[in-house]
């Protein structure tokens, strides 16, 4: 080894030359090849990789859409229609981008759900979890601004309602809103800056994803049992085991994606967004995209403007402090008989919020949204802290290997299983 | 400490000196960062041409008694309603104690029959319904915002629903008996 060069283990002379000067290959090999990973992942562990793929698809289609998109109130709507009708495969790029946003949120919601069920937010992964919440917030900002770009009625009025949320803050509120708009209403300056930020934020997300994964590779992955791997018998190398498992999930992901894009491309969108924006007429029933509905329901559940806004922001802020609200040392809810029920209800409740968020602000939806909002907050602020003290968890398995290899467990069946493999 | 050589001329209390220097440097850096950040923040506020587009002339002569028109001012709708004496009477009969954002009808008009309002709901900015005769007028004979259900009365005051404030009255002047300039 020459002084100042990395000692590369690669045989290929070109790879070796690069790797000894910039050990990218060694890093990839270490983090994605031999990386020791718990042997008991289920399919919920696919969703991180799927989220990564979603982000890449969004950036790819977004860059190409931008080549034909015009960020001006006079042209934006028509430029999107031109993408749909005249640009070669423009319809495909746009439908992949629009439905890709939905796929991204589906994947990320399941990814977050996984973390909440298996206690992945608990020590030592608190920071990893919080970086995830940052990504989620950035995604929401990005998707919100992206939806404004086609400049349809929902774009315009969605932008108006959401930016007006900030007017709820006393004293500074109206100044913040004027500043966000760059004028006295949502208008051309607003559209321009939203396009600029919509282009920028996904790359910021990519940066935070890097930190998220860097933190993951310090603590290692959690697993469905929520117990730490105790030795090599509890782990397997990431490649080829989880690269293949992720590929299976990826195929399913692409099937769902393709069904959306090719058979029901506008199912998750709102027809009013095919009407050009009109600042003088509000559609009678404005709704955000489906992935914002639970939070929109929380906003509308409160009859007070500032109260609604604070509760809505609070509902996400709670995710940041979740690691400290749930003091139970047992990670996986498999071993928490009560928390498991509370969390099943929380999941159901989330769908209730999603449903009422899409309904008009009338009875019985208003009352339902109030109960659902109450449960959402109670889960974090009352139930989890209480259960951490009161609940009696089930006994934890001795080790991952023992739990997954059956009762006899441990080294003996492993050795037996390894024998025929050696012959083959 | 005591037996360490102190360079000639330096104060013995080097800790305090260090702290002061650190503090001064930090403060100076903060001011510098602020000065650099400000142009960026400020560039997002309304530009001069946006501010310049700030007034609109409206001819009220064609607007019949009981009719309403909507005009655009600064990208927002402005409601102008030619009120009937009954409208005015009902708005004035309301005791202030019933109002969420108390204001007399008199304080919201320059001429009794002309009500001029910014047609933007003070909740989250939708345009309330009630300008057309066929529109819903809410429970108080004024405007109704369908977005989250705010009701405004015949003086544009908030009566029910999540909106906190009355519909705003823009600055305007009568340039003649039947003409106004908004802004
Ligand atoms: C986190 C990743 C992203 C998300 C969640 C996202 C989301 C969205 C959404 C929801 C729309 C509205 C689609 C519609 O209804 O038409 C949109 C439009 C758009 N996005 Fe993105 N986007 C992302 C990344 C990007 C990137 C990286 C770019 C550019 C480099 C981009 C460029 C565009 C353009 C030009 C439009 C307008 C054309 C259209 O409406 O289809 N996006 N985006
Ligand atoms: S915007 Fe009018 S009630 Fe919400």
Structure description:
The complex is a heterodimer of chains A (424) and B (183). Chain A contains 16 helices and two strands. By secondary structure, chain A is an all-alpha fold. Helices cover 24% and strands 22% of the residues of chain B. A three-stranded antiparallel beta sheet of chain B has the order 1-9-8, with no helix packed on it. In chain B, strands 2-3-4 form a three-stranded antiparallel beta sheet, with no helix packed on it. In chain B, strands 5-6-7 form a three-stranded antiparallel beta sheet, with no helix packed on it. Classes of the chains: A mainly alpha (424), B alpha+beta (183). The A-B interface holds A 157, 160-165, 167, 178-187, 189, 193, 279-282, 284-286, 300, 302-306, 308, 361-362 and B 41, 44-47, 50, 70, 72, 74-77, 120, 123-127, 146-149, 161-164. Protoporphyrin IX containing FE (HEM) is lined by residues 55, 58-59, 62-63, 65-66, 69, 80, 94, 97-98, 101, 104, 139, 142-143, 146-147, 149-150, 198-199, 202, 205, 269 of chain A.
SSE topology sketch:
The complex is a heterodimer of chains A (424) and B (183).
Chain A lengths: L12 H9 L2 H10 L2 E3 L8 H20 L9 H10 L4 H28 L8 H23 L4 H12 L8 H9 L6 H32 L15 E3 H26 L29 H9 L3 H21 L11 H21 L7 H26 L9 H5 L6 H13 L1
Antiparallel strand pairs in A: 1-2
Chain B lengths: L13 H30 L4 H5 L3 E4 L8 E6 L2 E7 L2 H9 L20 E5 L24 E3 L4 E3 L5 E3 L11 E5 L2 E4 L1
Antiparallel strand pairs in B: 1-9, 2-3, 3-4, 5-6, 6-7, 8-9
Secondary structure tally, helices of chain A: 16
Rounded Rg of chain B: 28 Å
The largest β sheet of chain B comes out as: 3 strands, antiparallel
CATH superfamily of the largest domain in chain B: Rieske [2Fe-2S] iron-sulphur domain
- Multimeric organization: heterodimer
Order of helices and strands of chain A: HHEHHHHHHHEHHHHHHH
Low-confidence parts of chain A: 408-424
Radius of gyration based on Cα positions of chain A: 25 Å
CATH class of the largest domain in chain A: Mainly Alpha
Each distinct ligand: protoporphyrin IX containing FE, FE2/S2 (inorganic) cluster
Shape of chain A: globular
Report the mean per-residue pLDDT of chain A as an integer.
92
Q: How would the global form of chain B be characterised? A: elongated
Number of strands of chain B: 9
Largest interface: A-B, 36 and 26 residues
């Amino acid at each position: 080894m020459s002084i100042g060069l990395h000692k590369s283990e690669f045989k290929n002379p070109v790879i070796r030359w690069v790797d000894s000067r910039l050990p990218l290959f060694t890093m990839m090999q270490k983090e994605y090849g031999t990386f020791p990973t718990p042997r008991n992942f289920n399919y919920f562990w696919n969703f991180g990789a799927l989220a990564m793929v979603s982000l890449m698809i969004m950036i790819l289609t977004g860059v190409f859409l931008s080549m034909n998109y015009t960020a001006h109130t006079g042209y934006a709507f028509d430029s999107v229609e031109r993408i749909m009708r005249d640009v070669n495969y423009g319809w495909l790029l746009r439908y992949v981008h629009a439905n890709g946003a939905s796929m991204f949120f589906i994947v990320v919601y399941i990814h977050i759900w996984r973390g909440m069920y298996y206690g992945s937010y608990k020590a030592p992964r608190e920071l990893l979890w919080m970086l995830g919440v940052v990504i989620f917030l950035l995604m929401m900002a990005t998707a919100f601004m992206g939806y404004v770009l086609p400049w349809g009625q929902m774009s315009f009025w969605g932008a108006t309602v959401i930016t007006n949320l900030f007017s709820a803050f006393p004293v500074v509120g109206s100044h913040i809103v004027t500043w966000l708009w760059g004028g006295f209403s949502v208008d051309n300056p607003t559209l321009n800056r939203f396009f600029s930020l919509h282009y920028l934020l996904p790359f910021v997300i990519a940066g935070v994803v890097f930190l998220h994964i860097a933190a993951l590779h310090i603590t290692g992955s959690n697993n469905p049992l929520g117990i730490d791997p105790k030795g090599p018998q509890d782990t397997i190398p990431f490649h080829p085991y989880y690269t293949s498992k992720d590929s299976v999930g990826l195929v399913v992901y692409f099937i769902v994606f393709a069904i959306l894009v090719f058979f029901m491309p506008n199912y998750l969108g709102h027809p009013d967004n095919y009407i050009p924006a009109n600042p003088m007429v509000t559609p009678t029933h404005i709704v955000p995209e489906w992935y914002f509905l639970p939070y929109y329901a929380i906003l509308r559940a409160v009859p007070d403007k500032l109260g609604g806004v604070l509760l809505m922001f609070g509902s996400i802020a709670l995710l940041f402090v979740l690691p400290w609200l749930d003091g139970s040392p047992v990670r996986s809810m498999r071993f928490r008989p009560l928390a498991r029920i509370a969390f099943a209800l929380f999941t159901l409740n989330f769908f209730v919020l999603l449903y009422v968020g899409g309904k008009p602000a009338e009875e019985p939806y208003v009352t339902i949204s109030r109960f659902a909002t109450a449960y959402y907050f109670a889960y974090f602020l009352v139930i989890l802290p209480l259960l951490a003290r009161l609940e009696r968890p089930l006994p934890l398995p001795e080790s991952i290997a023992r739990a997954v290899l059956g009762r006899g467990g441990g080294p003996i069946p492993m050795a037996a299983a390894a024998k025929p493999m050696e012959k083959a | 400490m005591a037996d360490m050589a102190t360079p000639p001329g330096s104060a013995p209390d080097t800790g305090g000196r260090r702290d002061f220097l650190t503090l001064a440097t930090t403060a100076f850096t903060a001011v510098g960062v602020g000065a650099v950040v400000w142009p960026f923040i400020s560039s997002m506020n309304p530009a001069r041409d946006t501010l310049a587009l700030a007034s609109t002339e409206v001819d009220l002569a064609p607007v019949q008694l009981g009719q309403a028109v909507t005009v655009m001012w600064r990208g927002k709708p402005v409601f102008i309603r030619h009120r009937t004496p009954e409208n005015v009477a009902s708005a004035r009969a309301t005791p202030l104690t019933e109002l969420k954002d108390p204001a007399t009808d008199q304080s919201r008009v320059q001429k009794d029959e002309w009500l001029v309002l910014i047609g933007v709901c003070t909740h989250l900015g939708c345009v309330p319904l009630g300008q057309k005769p066929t529109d819903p007028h809410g429970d108080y004979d004024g405007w109704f915002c369908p977005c989250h259900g705010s009701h405004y009365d015949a003086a544009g005051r908030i009566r029910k629903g999540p909106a906190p404030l009355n519909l705003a009255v823009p600055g305007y002047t009568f340039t003649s008996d039947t003409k106004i300039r908004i802004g």
